[in-house]
Amino acid sequence: MAERKAFNFYASFFDVYKQLKTDKDKVAFIEALLEKQFYGIDPEGLTGMALFAYESQKQVISQQVTGWEKKTKTTLSKGVSMGGSQGGSVQGEEKEEEEEKEKEEVKGEWTPDIIGQLKPTHQSSFLYWMEYRKEIKKPIKVKSTLKALVKKFNSHSVNCCDWVVNHSIENNYQGLFWDKYTEKNNKGEDYDPINNLAV
């Protein structure tokens, strides 16, 4: 067992952090990031946008941890997490592995690599749409469909993506209707998809 002293904080971590709208989600994301980097503890209890934010960077974070362990030929110490739980027991690790497997089965294998293909400015509206689809019990799991969706988001402006996502949610649609967007109905203004959800 060893204690890690430092790690490279990539710009992508900060880009995702800035996309989060509430202090609660920002703190949850950063705590999950730090616990994984320094203790090797996978996050528990993350929900909503904080969960999506972490999952979007999970592959990079895991690669950093694995690279450090290989370089030092040791394993990260399972210290006391910020939430106060103690890690490191065999049963605890087995339980975490089972829970992670269940999460992957539910979410599919899309999150780490698919989100990374999005422009940083487009991640907020994309994750907002994915959260909505999950809430209405219609999650998108097919990888080819998600890749096509990412390509579609990247090919449009931020304003367009935000407007189209919000329009579909306001009308309880299961799909996105890109042809309904015009500069006129958006009035060329920036739109905040998180703070303008229709109730």
What do you see in this structure?
The structure is a single chain. By secondary structure, this protein is mainly alpha-helical. The protein has two domains: 1-107, no CATH class; 113-199, no CATH class. Helix content is 59%, strand content 0%. Helix 1 (11-19) packs antiparallel against helix 3 (48-72). The longest helix has 25 residues, at 48-72. The protein is elongated, with a radius of gyration of 18 Å.
Topology of helices and strands:
Elements: H1 11-19, H2 23-39, H3 48-72, H4 90-107, H5 111-116, H6 123-135, H7 143-154, H8 158-170, H9 183-186
Would you identify the regions where 5 or more consecutive residues have pLDDT less than 50?
A: 84-92, 101-110, 188-199
Query: What's the helix-strand series?
Result: HHHHHHHHH
Q: How many DSSP-defined strands?
A: 0
The portion of residues forming beta strands comes to: under 5%
| Largest β sheet strand count, sense and barrel closure | none
- Our Rg estimate from Cα atoms comes to 18 Å
In total, the number of domains comes to 2
Q: Provide the structure class.
A: mainly alpha
- State the helical fraction: 55-70%
